[in-house]
C-alpha cells in the first residue's frame, strides 16, 4: 500500500490575512522558521522564494519547490495552518531526511503559532542543541522534565531543569516525537524538545532542543546560552568536542 503523506496542522488565533505575511515576508519568516545560524536568510530565500515556488495570495496557498504545500483556512476568526507533505518516494535522494523534514515542520508551526499569539512575531533569540544521547535516554529526561511525560496541552507546570533554571509555564504541544512548553521567565519563551529520527547518518537517532526567548538583553542571553551549551556538551552520550 502507498503511504499517505503526512498532513501537519496548527490553529492560530488570528485571521488568515494576519498569518499570510508570516509566510511571505522574509523578516517575519525568520522569527518562526529555523533558528539563529549563519545562512538562515539564504535558507529562507531558497525554500520560500525560489523559482519553483508558487503562491495564490487570494486563496492563501503556497506550494514550495520540494512539493510541501501550505494552505490557510479561516474558521471563526482563527486560522488553520496546514502543511501537506509530498509522498515519501517523490524524491528518492531526499528520502533519508523525509522524517526530519516532517518533524521540522511540526516544530516550526508551533513556533509560528506561539510567535503570533504571544508576541505578534516580535524578534526572538534562539538556541538549538542536537546530538546523540546515551542508549535509552531522551532530551526530556536530560532536561529533568520527566514529570511532563503524562501532562496534556494546557496543563501548567513548574520544574527545576538540569540546566539550573526554574521553569514555569504551560504545555503547548504534545506529539509522538516532540513536546513544546512555554517558559514564563523568558518573555515568555517556547521550549521544544524531542527525538531525532533514525536514518543512515544517525543510526541510533538522537535528541534535539530548540529554545526561543524574548525580551532578554545581551548579557542575559549570553549567560543562558553559555550555561545551556555547557550543560548539553556534558550530557551522557555526548560526542567528544573537536
Automatic annotation (TrEMBL):
SUPFAM superfamilies: Bet v1-like
InterPro entries: START-like_dom_sf
Superkingdom: Bacteria
Name of the molecule in the record: SRPBCC domain-containing protein
Species for this entry: Rhodococcus wratislaviensis (Tsukamurella wratislaviensis)
Amino acid at each position: 500500500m502507498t503511504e499517505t503523506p503526512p498532513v501537519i496542522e496548527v490553529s492560530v488565533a488570528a485571521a488568515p490575512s494576519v498569518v499570510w505575511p508570516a509566510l511571505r515576508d522574509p523578516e517575519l519568516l525568520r522569527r518562526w522558521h529555523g533558528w539563529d545560524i549563519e545562512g538562515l536568510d539564504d535558507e529562507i530565500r531558497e525554500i520560500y522564494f525560489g523559482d519553483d515556488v508558487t503562491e495564490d495570495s487570494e486563496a492563501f496557498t503556497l506550494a514550495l519547490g520540494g512539493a510541501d504545500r501550505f494552505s490557510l483556512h479561516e474558521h471563526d476568526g482563527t486560522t488553520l495552518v496546514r502543511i501537506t507533505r509530498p509522498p515519501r518516494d517523490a524524491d528518492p535522494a531526499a528520502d533519508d531526511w523525509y522524517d526530519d523534514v516532517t518533524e521540522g515542520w511540526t516544530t516550526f508551526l508551533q513556533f509560528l503559532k506561539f510567535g503570533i499569539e504571544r508576541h505578534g512575531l516580535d524578534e526572538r533569540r534562539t538556541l538549538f542543541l542536537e546530538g546523540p544521547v546515551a542508549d535509552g535516554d531522551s532530551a526530556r529526561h536530560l532536561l529533568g522534565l520527566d514529570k511532563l511525560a503524562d501532562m496534556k496541552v494546557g496543563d501548567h507546570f513548574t520544574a527545576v531543569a538540569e540546566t539550573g533554571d526554574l521553569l514555569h509555564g504551560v504545555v503547548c504541544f504534545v506529539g509522538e516525537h516532540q513536546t513544546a512548553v512555554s517558559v514564563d521567565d523568558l518573555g515568555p519563551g517556547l521550549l521544544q524538545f524531542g527525538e531525532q529520527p533514525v536514518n543512515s547518518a544517525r543510526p541510533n537517532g538522537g535528541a534535539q532542543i530548540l529554545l526561543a526567548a524574548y525580551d532578554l538583553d545581551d548579557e542575559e542571553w549570553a549567560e543562558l546560552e553559555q550555561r545551556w551549551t555547557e550543560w548539553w556538551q556534558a550530557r551522557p552520550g555526548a560526542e567528544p568536542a573537536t
